[in-house]
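User: My instructor asked us to take a sequence, write out its structure as tokens, and then describe one feature of it. I'm not sure where to start. Here is the sequence I was given:
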Amino acid sequence: MKDVEIEGVKHYTLFVPFKTVFFVPDHYGVVLDNAEELAEKGAKVDVVYCDGKAINNCIFNCYGDKSLCKVCKMYQKHLFRHIKNKQSISIIPVSNFSKGNEPTLSDFMRQNPFSTISELEQIEYKGVKVGLAAFSSYLTLSRNLYPLVDDQFKDFISRYMHMCAKTTDLVNTALEQLQPGGVACFNARFICCRPVYDLCMTKHIPFCSYEVGFNTQNKINKKYFHNVMPHSLDYNTQLINDLWESPKRTKEEKIETATNFFKKRRSSIASGDKVSYTTLQKSGQLPANWDPSKHNIAIFNSSEDEFASLGEEFKELSLFPNQFTGIQYLFEKFGNDPSIHLYLRIHPNLKDIPYSYHKKLLEFTGKYENVTIIPGNSPVSTYALIDNSDKILIFGSSVGFEAAYAKKPVVLLGCAMYRNLGISYVPQNTDELDQLVMDKTLQPKETLGALKFSYFTVNDEWEPMKYFTDNTKSKKKIFGKVLTLTRCQIKGHPLSPYFSYLYQIVGKFFWYRSNHSFPTKEQ
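Assistant: Let's start with the prediction itself. The structure tokens for your sequence are:
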């Protein structure tokens, strides 16, 4: 089990996310919560934050609206006022580390031209992958997997990269001046934090990336990733196995927790995630043309934009360059085989996505004799498909380990955190894939890995938030807009949720009035 402490370190520099706090107060809360915990254990802690002077834009405020910066700074001050271990924790604005020689936007754009996404992803600034960080941040915001690289997109993404480059210089100076023994930040892949990770790796400074999970009550708990990003496959595999072997719970308790996870999922109750994607599906409903006499294969795609945003490793470990190519290959190869029927279940999370990587899937309808396309908003039950299919083909979504638990043969065509747990077949080339598809006697793998992964996904062993607690989301209609509000409650402060809601309401009011657009054109 990984701890918040880095062995032998007594001086830490923690970077809170340099992005608009009223959108992600829980991300700030995790960093501040760990600052308190480290100070309690006798460490000296620097908390470096954005005061809107050296950096004037961020992920949610690309064009630098000053009113958004003002609300953000007010909210940060509210959180900082409630830090308990003030003797050990120093709150430092990042502008303290400005030398006044950060690159201008025009100079940066002139020095870093690009005309394709591949060229964009290769752009680095002083060893930091600013292009990759910028595109990953853009994907999270827009979900536009194949944007048109026109002047509008170049301007937008260059502002992201420029922010990342300025952050690189500021973080580098902070590390030189503060000389911490260990460094931490939240997540590490966005433009606001990728410089922290890359610089620490270059300078060989012990680093910890913070993430959040959800326990059995769907409340936040904390995860730590030492000297890696939170999406490292090998590191997560180690965490999964370590957690399963930890002595804090008996194996019987772990199996019970894991089993309850699957029960909740099948009952459309959110478990280990923010929402349930099967709420609108009808229990037991199969496609109208279901024929049990055929070899029925269910294909479950995933939200490809989410996986693409995770970076290099996920691309490298995928059998196909993208999911559309893989699905098209399967349809061309097996779609007219009379003994087989392929059912593509489009991920419900894509039902409102207007981009072609989703809409092009619907165009396969009627093109192949033995292919059925099930739209994301269809009432056809995901679990009825799993239970009645002879085989499951998966690109990486959680359906893969749920199908493995249901004792179905699972073939993984992409990358997933359960890839190395022995619950799926992982073809290394299309010849191996063809054999797995045609093998009508293919047996399911062991289910132990599925239990391990479900316990990893939702458990009570990760540390809970201690000082900046809770993460209950609510939706409220204010000023004619539906706002999603996240409570970042300060422990022992009964008015804290109301302050948090107030800052979020005011901040999002100004955000709606600001220029918060992003490029939506596709290639």
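For the description part of your assignment, you could build on this observation: The CA atoms of residues 4 and 34 lie 7 Å apart. Try explaining in your own words what that tells you about the chain.
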